[in-house]
Amino acid sequence: MKTGKIPKATITRLSFYYRQLELLEFDGYRMVSSEKLAWLCQVNPAQVRKDLGYFGEFGVRGVGYDVIDLQQEIKKILAVNRNWNMGIVGIGNLGSALLQHQNFPTRGFSFVAAFDSDENKIGKVLSSGLMIKDIRDLKETVKELNIEIGVITTPPSVAQGVADIFSEAQVNALLNFSPTQIHVPETCLVENIDFTIKLDILTYKLKNEI
Amino acid sequence: MKTGKIPKATITRLSFYYRQLELLEFDGYRMVSSEKLAWLCQVNPAQVRKDLGYFGEFGVRGVGYDVIDLQQEIKKILAVNRNWNMGIVGIGNLGSALLQHQNFPTRGFSFVAAFDSDENKIGKVLSSGLMIKDIRDLKETVKELNIEIGVITTPPSVAQGVADIFSEAQVNALLNFSPTQIHVPETCLVENIDFTIKLDILTYKLKNEI
DNA sequence: CATTGTGAACTCATTCACAGCG
DNA sequence: CGCTGTGAATGAGTTCACAATG
Fold this sequence. Notes:
The structure is a homodimer of 210-residue chains.
Chain A: H1 8-26, E1 31-32, H2 34-41, H3 45-53, E2 59-60, E3 64-66, H4 67-78, E4 84-89, H5 93-100, H6 103-106, E5 109-116, E6 132-134, H7 138-145, E7 149-152, H8 156-168, E8 173-176, E9 189-192, H9 195-209
Chain B binds a DNA duplex (22 and 22 nucleotides) through residues 2, 5, 7, 9-10, 33-35, 43-47, 49-50, 52-53, 57-65.
């Protein structure tokens, strides 16, 4: 395993590989070649081998990769071989939808706290059993429940403020759904999920590529 | 304007530039330099100029860019200087949340139809006033209402099927929220919004960069 | 002998540096 | 004079091609 710089795109692809491996296991496959895995993920076979090569030698020459073993290896690389506690701020339509999303718990991502600043929402109990807390209790709750990932589903105007609160509470990984750039200290990681940017890309391509 | 190949990332950045220009206009700015715009978007100033340079000469040397004019130019480039009709399939928590999302209509993206296959949902009227239609009526509705963008918020197991239906109905731009790779003909564009992949990236970085 | 693992070649994207111009 | 526009230089990421090997 060499520790050269690893492209960001490699991490994204590992996540794809993992999903296809789950499906392959479900379909009864024991082994898979880089060619087959690449085809399923719509990438180049050499890309698959290179991506995996950054982290170790997981294959058997002349045979391929063990479907189950490789899943475990990728889980270790992505650090998803354990549970992660998440806190979410902004319990509107989107926030509520995420709290009920089936995909997170099955992958080891658990919402353990929900926050809002709206007096009418605070104290309400969600269908998941979680009670909406006051945003002012965030710092305390983070410590108490060991929250490591913060999810922001507020209106854009308050997203930066929420990010600051998370950051101050030592939550160093944020998933930001609000359509605004948030600025955080070096030590804090942010991933943005931005619906309208994706729509802009679609309309651009519709206009130009067709 | 040269028509060389334009990086995908350039389109994403144009969308960012546009947002910052809106804010600059709101704050009363008439002109902006590539340096300032770059700083706001956290990119290199030369990047801003090169990105814009793919599409024309929008600036004034020695001065900068007109905040309002540049907005219009970018809207033209991204083809968001008009309305786009969208249809959504899968009216669960996420689908409902998107239908009520404020950000889409203000940017010219309108949901004009909502579909599901669940008998209990079909016929219900949403708070937006839209009635949930039977997925079997999709093709007809697409024609009738001129739907150009399809949004998929179904469980992964049926996402491919929905994509096929859209594709068959000549909807050639899809926004896919289900965590699965969908395969479509060459003529059809797909953008994926995948929450768990973003979480995987966060956990990877948390483990490795801290 | 089929397939991995990987240096080298290549392609694509970003940044530099400065000429061009209002 | 200051900032844009852009060719040239650099850097990053992908693909090729083949040696290594179970």
